[in-house]
Design a protein that fits this description.
Blueprint: H1 3-14, H2 17-20, H3 22-29, E1 46-50, H4 55-66, E2 70-75, H5 78-91, E3 97-101, H6 107-116, E4 124-127, H7 145-160, H8 162-165, E5 169-173, H9 197-219, E6 225-229, H10 237-242, H11 244-250, H12 257-269, E7 278-281, E8 284-285, H13 298-312
Parallel strand pairs: 1-2, 1-4, 2-3, 4-5, 5-6, 6-7
Antiparallel strand pairs: 7-8
Helix pairs in contact: 4-5, 4-12, 6-7, 7-9, 7-13, 9-13
The structure holds NADP nicotinamide-adenine-dinucleotide phosphate.
NADP nicotinamide-adenine-dinucleotide phosphate is lined by residues 50-51, 53-57, 75-77, 80, 103-105, 128-131, 149, 173, 175, 230-231, 233-234, 236-239, 260.
């Protein structure tokens, strides 16, 4: 990037509204074409996308299928999954698509899914499934639902698939909302403070980002890389149902699902492989903190890491 482009890119990132919207995407996009993955970059490769029945997950599955990947759509609702699969097939005739059932918030279901997956390598695992419950809700194992969906299930699934993932890439979909939150070291299950869905969501996304370097270190012996990204604001069913007023007011500025999924697809397919353990947005590594009050210590990270390992039985 030229110095001017870098300065513009940084300004977009710090000013949030333009950067997270379509404006940021469209401005940055002008410097990308040479960097796009080859059209057949994922031919012969297999990818799993969780939460692929809707929004960004469906757009990610489509983007990976366009690059030739066999895509396994891991969904909790098979009817919605079938519709998404048919939509992708229409866009990419002949795409190799497989529909899998998995509720990633349910650790038992994650164990079943990992066990039932047939032999063969998984080259890309995208942890996209996401929720923002209006009231504090619990997973079947009694964990707060955003923690279970965004952190515990993905951690367990990654670890169980580790032999299949050797040499592959793991990508977690976080959110820029995590910038507002500190790592909830003393209360990862959100038991103490009055519950707010948006806060629970952002805290769990902060945990994803804080644990990324630790997960990268854990998986490095198997040459598995880990990337966490945030997609900006994209017009998806999830955004509309979680933040209806925000979606209504900002709709003309929101990214399309394909634009929001762009960096995920790029991280999955680009060569050379991006460095492991980083936090990405619009194809660039980004700082993990902008506010002094959200900083955590290595001991805090270790504490949450241990909590999650214990909670998942790893
Ligand atoms: N849209 C944005 O602007 C934005 C911004 C920042 C981050 N994100 C993140 O991007 C990801 C996708 O969000 P989206 O906006 O595309 O929302 P969405 O349209 O609601 O899609 C979320 C997907 O996750 C699935 N899901 C939820 N819980 C699941 C579970 N326990 N097991 C399996 N699948 C599950 C949903 O399945 P059902 O259809 O069965 O509910 C749905 O397919 C999320 O992680 C979200 O936090 C989105």
């Amino acid at each position: 990037m030229t110095a001017l482009r870098t300065a513009l890119d940084t300004a977009l990132d710090r000013t949030v509204l333009p950067g997270y919207s379509r404006i940021g995407y469209l401005v940055r996009r002008t410097s990308w074409p040479a960097d796009d993955p080859r059209p057949d970059a994922l031919r012969g490769r297999t990818a799993i996308v969780t939460g692929a029945s809707s929004g960004l997950g469906k757009a990610t599955a489509l983007g990976l299928a366009r690059l030739g990947a066999t895509v396994r759509l891991a969904v909790r609702n098979l009817d919605k999954g079938r519709t998404a699969l048919a939509d992708i097939e229409r866009e990419v005739p002949g795409a190799e698509l497989v529909l899998d059932r998995c509720d990633v918030s349910d650790l038992e279901d994650v164990r079943r899914y990992a066990k039932e997956l047939e032999a063969g390598q998984i080259h890309v695992l995208v942890h996209n499934a996401g929720v923002m419950p209006p009231k504090r809700a619990l997973s079947p194992q009694g964990h707060e639902l955003t923690l279970a969906t965004h952190v515990l299930g993905p951690l367990l699934l990654t670890d169980l698939l580790r032999p299949k993932l050797a040499g592959g890439r793991v990508i977690l979909i976080a959110s820029g909302g995590m910038y507002t939150q500190q790592l909830p070291t003393e209360d990862p299950e959100y038991r103490n403070d009055p519950y707010r869905g948006a806060t629970a969501y952002a805290r769990s996304k902060r945990i994803q980002v804080a644990l990324t370097p630790l997960l990268a270190t854990r998986l490095a012996p198997d040459n598995i890389t880990v990337a966490t990204m945030h997609p900006g604001w994209s017009d998806t069913p999830g955004l509309t149902s979680s933040l209806p007023l925000f979606t209504k007011l900002t709709r003309p500025l929101l990214r399309t699902p394909a634009e929001g999924a762009d960096t995920t697809v790029w991280l999955a397919a680009t060569t050379p492989e991006p460095p492991t353990g980083k936090f990405w947005h619009d194809r660039q590594p980004r700082p993990t903190h902008y506010l002094a009050r959200t900083q955590e210590s290595p001991a805090d990270r270790q504490h949450i890491w241990q909590y999650c390992l214990d909670a998942t039985g790893l």
